[in-house]
Specification:
The protein has 188 residues and is of the alpha/beta class. The protein has one domain: 3-Layer(aba) Sandwich (Pyruvate-ferredoxin Oxidoreductase, domain 3), CATH 3.40.920. 39% of the residues lie in helices and 24% in strands. The chain has eight helices and six strands. β4, α2 and β5 (86-95) form a beta-alpha-beta unit. The two termini are 27 Å apart. The relative contact order is 0.17.
Length: 188
């Protein structure tokens, strides 16, 4: 059985580290893994999408509409944009943070209202104030690892395996903060 996970966010939010932690964890579990990263002006706060597929044999990392088992969204509008990719019965984990995209910053459009309500109407959604939890862990940039912790709880991979991967993936000077961030998400 192949698992399909999309990680969506905005450039600078740490989606790539999150996909590395996820990918390394499932590789360590013996799964075949394919990862594909799509950057849309990520250096300037644009959309970033990462596809992670794992299972016994995986041939392509691409996830089509209606196929994602889990969407891990680092920002509300990115969650809304990714919604069509979630399969029926899939799980959407969303950081409640709102980051204005360039058209909103320039005044060309308004940030959409009531995104959380629109998501909850249609999907199994877990809303997480990951920014507050990351700050509690010691660094607002640890939002990514908070969300990985929330997601990890809904996988069949043991807690200890995630911790081992974080210890080998995160730079030592940020390890304590990231372990705390993971635990806050995992125990939410």
């Amino acid at each position: 059985m192949t698992k399909k996970i999309m990680i969506v966010g905005v450039g600078g939010q740490g989606t790539l580290l999150a996909s590395r932690i996820l990918g390394n964890t499932v590789i360590n579990e013996g799964y075949d893994v394919k990862v594909s990263e799509v950057h849309g002006m990520s250096q300037r706060g644009g959309s970033v999408v990462t596809y992670v597929k794992y299972g016994d044999e995986v041939y392509s990392p691409i996830i089509d509409k209606g196929e994602a088992d889990i969407i891990l969204a680092f920002e509300m509008l990115e969650a809304y944009r990714a919604m069509p990719f979630l399969k029926k019965g899939g799980k959407l984990i969303v950081n409640t943070q709102e980051i204005d995209p360039m058209p909103v910053i320039t005044g060309a459009m308004d940030y959409p209202e009531n995104i959380a309500d629109k998501l909850k109407e249609k999907l199994d959604v877990t809303l997480v104030d990951a920014l507050s939890l990351a700050e509690k862990a010691g660094n607002f940039k640890a939002v990514n690892v908070v969300l990985i912790g929330v997601m990890a709880k809904s996988t069949d991979i043991a807690y200890e395996k995630w911790i081992e991967t974080i210890k080998t993936t995160v730079p030592p000077k940020f390890l304590d903060i990231n372990l705390e961030a993971f635990n806050l998400g995992y125990n939410l």
